[in-house]
Design brief:
Number of helices: 4
Helix content: 25-40%
Radius of gyration: 16 Å
Structural class: alpha/beta
Shape: globular
Oligomer: single chain
CATH superfamily: ATPase, nucleotide binding domain
CATH architecture: 2-Layer Sandwich
Order of helices and strands: EEEHEHEHH
CATH class: Alpha Beta
Largest sheet: 5 strands, mixed
């Protein structure tokens, strides 16, 4: 199964491609808030380097927020546009769940660590 994932929730734009559970390609581009200009070329480069086309993608994953409203719209629209001609399924991915999944076993969830100061821990309020 080929999964193409897109992240446009923040300042950086990201594209990743997994094939049968193995990460083939991943890139994050910190070009400022220029996702409308950079996202499709990033996807095109990814597919070309992996020797695939949109027809080879079995599932598109896209960041669904929270995040930059305009960035999210760009990512969602791009993925829907790529998926529509072949009726390829799309899966929304929560920004917070993706961040937490990246830190499983680390002992803390980064979004909570940065939002709540230590004195706000249970029993300290």
């Amino acid at each position: 199964m080929n999964i193409l994932a897109v992240d446009t929730a923040g300042k950086t734009a990201g594209v990743a491609l997994m094939q049968d559970g193995r990460l083939l390609y991943e890139v994050y581009f910190d070009g400022g808030l220029t996702h409308s200009e950079t996202l499709l070329p990033l996807i095109d480069t990814c597919l070309k380097l992996c020797g695939l086309t949109c027809a080879d993608i079995d599932l598109f994953g896209v960041n669904a927020g929270p995040g930059s409203f305009t960035g999210l719209r760009i990512g969602l629209a791009a993925v829907k546009g790529l998926a529509f001609p072949r009726n390829t399924p799309c899966a929304p991915v929560s920004t917070l769940e993706a961040l937490a999944a990246g830190h499983v076993g680390q002992g803390t969830v980064p979004c909570l660590h940065h939002v709540f100061p230590p004195e706000a821990a249970p029993g300290h309020l």
